[in-house]
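Fold it.
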Amino acid sequence: MPLRPIRTLLAGLLILALSACALFPNRDPLNINVVGIEPLQGQDLEIRFAVKLRLQNPNDTDIAYDGVALNLDVNGKLLASGVSDQKGTIGRFSEGVLTVPVTVSAFAALRQAVGLTEQQRLDNLPYELHGKLAGGLFGTMRFYDSGTLSLPQPASGSW
């Protein structure tokens, strides 16, 4: 079998692929930060929260999204995960707040409790938030945020 037609075909496909990349807009990443965590009604052995995210679009075009998924790690361990099928648009050079319900399983809560030392307090716990904002075939944007969380302290003497 002659190699010349195969080489020509591969070279053509490579040129086509490289030129297709030029068609996609050069966008800056979204700025996504956790701005709040509020309790939600849970069931049985699960705890639920509403994680509020501030989305900032530093681009000169609107960004449409169709769903969001996220994982919340605390102290280097997975604490909660959540998904939402919300749809919307973040206008050019604007911002909005997106609320995603997340679930903490009893096992994840137990794993976090075992990881805490007796001297460690429930404030200033390091967290990492990983997620993605779905936007079609090539529009999905991954995001990351980190910082510290302060969880409510139990009242002393309540045990």
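The chain has one domain: 28-148.
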